[in-house]
Amino acid sequence: MAPTAQPTILSPSELSYLYTSLSLNPPIRPDARSPTSFRPLVAETDLLPTANGSARLCFADGTEAIVGVKGEVERTGGVGKQIGIREDDVEMGGIEGEEGTGGAGGEDWWVEVTVDMPGQRDDDAMVVFLAQMIHEGLVADGGLRARLVINRRWHWRLYIDILLLSPPHTYPLPLLSLTAHLALLSTCLPAPVAGLEKDDDPIFNDDWDAAIPLYPSTPPSSKAKANLSAARPPITLLVISVGDNIFFDPSHAELAVADAVVAVTVASSPSSTDDLNLLAVRTIDPPSRLSSSAAEMGQAVEEGAWKPKKGGMSRTVLRKMVGMCVARGGVGEEVLGGLEGFT
User: How high is the mean pLDDT of the chain?
Assistant: First the structure.
C-alpha cells in the first residue's frame, strides 16, 4: 500500500462534520458534487511538437499535468541478454515463439514511465508508486505491448514522461492517469514501408502525415488485429468509502476522512457490449492512517470528535467499488467516453 499526500490540517470538529456530511443518505460533498461526479477539467492534445504524442490536462483547482510520449526502435535480440538466451540464437532464428519476439505480446520493459513532481525526488515513495501504478495498468492486458511489435527482430520502445506542473492539492494519480491516456490516444508512430517480414530490418516513411496512430479509431482489415483496435489505453480511478457511501475523484478534505481508498485500473473491452476489463486494484493508505489519533497519543478525545476508523475494508465495500467502475454504463465507461471528446 502506498500513502496519499500529507494529512489535511483540519480540527477534530471540522473532520467530524465532514465525515457526518459524507455519511448521510444522500451524502453532501463540500463542493456539492454527486458521489460519481468528477471535477471540471480542460485538456488538449498534440501540444509538444517533438513528441510522438502529448497531452495536457488541468483540473478546476489549478492542478495541471503534461505527458509526452516518445517512440524509439530497438532490436528485440537484446532480450536474449536479459533472459539468458544467446543473442546469436535469437538473430539466427534458433529461438521461436515467445523468446524470439519478447513474447507474442511483447515485454513489459518496452514501456517506460517516469513521473516528475515539484518538490519530490525521483526515488521518493509517492513518485515511485505513481510511476509503477500507471505502468502496471498500461501493460496489464498486453494490448499496448502487442502494438509495439514490428517484426521478430525489432520493436518499438515507448518513453512516457509525466510532468506535474504544480504541487498537487489532492492525490494526483487520477490526473496523471487521465493525461497519459490522452497522450497515448494522440500518439502516432512512423509507418513502415518495408521490413515487416520476420528477418528484415524495418524501413519507415519519413512523412509524418503518413504516421499510424498507436490506437487507431477505425478497425484494421486484418482480423488478427481486430481486438487491438477496439481497445483504448487504461485509466485509473481513485475511489473512497465513507460509511456506506462510495465517492469518486475525492478532494483533499474528503481523503482526510476516508475509511478506505482504492485505485482501480480499467480498460475498454474488445466488445462494446461487455463490461470494462478490470486490470488492477491497489489499496492506498488514507491520511488518517499516517498520523496518530489523540487517543493513541495519550490525549483525551472530545465527545463527538471524529476518530479514524481502525481495520481494513470489507469485501462487500470493495466489490461495490469495483462494480461501479467496470459495470456497463458505470463510472469507468462514462469517463472513457468523456475523454474521447478531447481527441
Answer: 81
Which amino acid makes up residue 259? D
pLDDT on residue 58: 93
Asked if 248 and 331 touch (Cβ cutoff 8 Å), the reply is yes
Could you tell me which residues are beta bridge partners of residue 67?
55, 162
Rounded distance between C-alpha atoms, residue 130 and residue 124, angstroms: 10
Rounded CA-CA distance 257/39 in Å is 19
Distance CA 6, CA 282 (A): 19
**Separation between Cα atoms, residue 166 and residue 120, nearest integer Å:** 11
Q: Which residue stretches of the chain have pLDDT < 50?
A: 1, 79-103, 222-227, 229-230, 291-301
Residue 114, helix vs strand vs coil: strand
Task: Pick one of 3.90.650.10, 1.20.210.10, 3.30.230.70, 3.40.190.10 as the CATH number of 2-340.
Answer: 3.30.230.70
Supply the pLDDT for residue 87. Answer: 40
Domain boundaries defined on the chain: 2-340
Name the E strands within the chain.
2-3, 41-45, 53-59, 64-75, 111-116, 154-164, 188-189, 192-194, 203-204, 212-213, 235-242, 245-248, 260-267, 277-285
Hey, what's the cell of 308?
479514524
What pLDDT does 159 receive?
97
**Residue 228 neighbours by CB under 8 Å, 6+ apart:** 143, 146, 147, 220
Q: What's the rounded Cα separation, in Å, for the pair 51 and 187?
A: 8
Q: What is the DSSP string of 210-279?
A: GPEESS-SS--S-GGGHHHHH----EEEEEEEETTEEEES--HHHHHT-SEEEEEEEE--SSTTSPPEEE
pLDDT at res. 254: 92
